[in-house]
Amino acid sequence: MLLPLLLRLGLWQLDRAEEKRQLINTLEQRSTAPAVDLSEALQVKDPDMMVVTSEGKPISGVDLVIDNQTRDGRLGYEIYSLWQPTNFEQPIIVSRGWLPRKDFYQKVPNIPPFEAARLEGSLYFSKGANSVVADNAIWQEYDGIWLLGQFDFQTVAEKVKQMGYDSAPFIIRLQPDRTSKFVRQWPLVASPPEKHIAYAIQWFAMALALVMLFIILNLKRVKHNESTSS
């Protein structure tokens, strides 16, 4: 009874790996396509990861910092601000990118001013709430900058709402800019196909171990029966 279950779990993980490959291919095509206007992108059925442009202005006084974010082995912060488009009613949470932590004692980074009349970035729709972060979220304020230990879109959106803004149900992640102090690199998916393949190998290895155990036990039983019969 256990063997078919282990094999089924292994095959399921292989299917998940193939789904992730297809998803990554789709997202890569979207992320490298020419930018379109925000209003045009939102008419698409699934605009996640589409590159968009938006004219508008930043909303001052909204600086949210997510701590414990790593890039190339360095610890730092991801910075979120608020953007009011001219052709969209709701303000939009914008990820401006990553800044390194200077030292252990630094609480929040020195955030460059958010000054723009037009921005370009990729749309990011939440893949679901992180209940662990949401249930244990503790915001800390340092000179008007709000700090959170881990990212959860719902938690960030609720904080923005407490500040008086009912934000859109997505984020704009700004495009890389060599002249910017921010590092802008985000994975297309949180869990790559290789992770599912590793899980599949584990399930198949457990199935093989079960078969080997079954064979060994039955060989011992046969030998025992032969010895008692003689």
UniProtKB/TrEMBL annotation:
TM stretches of this protein: 197-219
Membrane topology according to the record: Multi-pass membrane protein
Taxonomic superkingdom: Bacteria
UniProt subcellular location: Cell membrane; Membrane
Annotated keywords: Cell membrane, Membrane, Transmembrane, Transmembrane helix
CDD domains the record matches: SURF1
InterPro entries tied to this protein: Surf1/Shy1, Surf1/Surf4
Alphabetical list of Pfam families matching this protein: SURF1 (PF02104)
Family classification: Belongs to the SURF1 family.
Name this polypeptide is given: SURF1-like protein
The organism of origin for this protein: Kangiella marina
